[in-house]
Amino acid sequence: MAGTSDIEKAADVLRAGGLVALPTETVYGLGANAEDPAAVSRTFQVKGRPSSHPLIVHIGGAELLDDWVQEVPATARLLAEHFWPGPLTLVLRRGRRVPLEATGGLETVAVRVPDHPVALALLSAFGGGVTAPSANRFGSVSPTTADDVRAELGDAVDFVLDGGLCEVGVESTIVDATGDIPTILRPGGVTREDLESVLGCPLAVPASSRIRVPGQHPSHYAPRAQVVLVPPEKVVTEAELAQELGHRVGVFLPAAFGDAEVKAHAVVRVPDSMAAYARGLYGLLRELDQRGCDIIVASLLAEAGLGLAIANRLRRAAGPRAAA
Ligand code: TXA
Ligand code: MG
């Protein structure tokens, strides 16, 4: 776990225009000084991500929001005060400190306060804002441990802060808060139900397959193996059929199957709480890749609470891939 001297070193790396991988409560991020266009641009190169895809600016506290955005509608203020630090990202009008490199040319900017002691210590030592996309190569599975980051990015990142396993495990919920009625752009660690109870009104959530946020492709969060989604009761038959056809099949076995035997290459059991499933999801996808699976058979759970974000990530992992 990163100590005080690591935090100081990481802050120096940011000041010098370098890239620091940092733990957050959701996933690890690839951090750069948000006000340094050259450092921000390097983030895109290292990830292999198109420069039109906007980044999230991480700040040290809700009281700093006005330094980074131009207008904060009352609903946005309410959400910031209630959920920060936490897995909620607010899209607001870009403040002048934010370079267009960070927003992919947009006049809006995504901002959040991460809820992780190491991230907060870094933001406090550094004193500025830190752009941080998930610290993985473009389109692949987000990292939830420091080892995942090293496996994804190796020497391309100047310094890695170790903060252990990310507690939430899926990315932040992104809310467009520029207008009077906020909308969810990406489901994540703060549930729709939590947002609704604070706002006191229902929120529209676009069908996950139709979400149109810059930087969200049909295939994202994808392991090397092909992900196949089937109804829960078909997971075992589908997996065994594919295995018989010569595939190396990995199975996400729903809790309802207990410890049933499955004739497949690798079986992982889906944790029975949504929080544990979200925390373990990316690690399980990585594990099945590492065990050499070429197909992963999984199913969607109820899309309520954290299940909405889990289903969104699984659908994208299973989404059509661009020609390689
Ligand atoms: O939990 C998280 O949000 C993690 C941790 C590291 O904080 N970060 C993360 O960043 O997931 P990234 O770059 O992988 O995803 C950020 C997404 C972009 O893909 C884009 O869809 C959306 O945020 N975004 C950023 N700025 C936006 C804007 N101005 N308008 C709409 N969407 C925006
Ligand atoms: Mg990402």
Automatic annotation (TrEMBL):
Gene3D superfamilies per the UniProt record, alphabetical: DHBP synthase, Threonylcarbamoyl-AMP synthase, C-terminal domain
Domain YrdC-like: from-to ranges: 4-190
Highest taxon above the source species: Bacteria
An example molecular function term from Gene Ontology annotations: L-threonylcarbamoyladenylate synthase
Main location: cytoplasm
Protein name (record): Threonylcarbamoyl-AMP synthase
Localization per record: Cytoplasm
Enzyme class at the top of the EC tree: transferase
EC number from the UniProt entry: 2.7.7.87
InterPro entries cross-referenced by the UniProt entry: DHBP_synth_RibB-like_a/b_dom, Sua5-like_dom, Sua5/YwlC_C, Sua5_C, T(6)A37_SUA5, TC-AMP_synthase_SUA5
Role noted for this protein: Required for the formation of a threonylcarbamoyl group on adenosine at position 37 (t(6)A37) in tRNAs that read codons beginning with adenine.
Family that this chain belongs to: Belongs to the SUA5 family.
Catalytic activity, as annotated: L-threonine + hydrogencarbonate + ATP = L-threonylcarbamoyladenylate + diphosphate + H2O
Biological source species: Streptomyces nigra
Pfam families to which the protein is assigned, alphabetical: Sua5_C, Sua5_yciO_yrdC
Keywords, sorted A to Z: ATP-binding, Cytoplasm, Nucleotide-binding, Nucleotidyltransferase, Transferase, tRNA processing
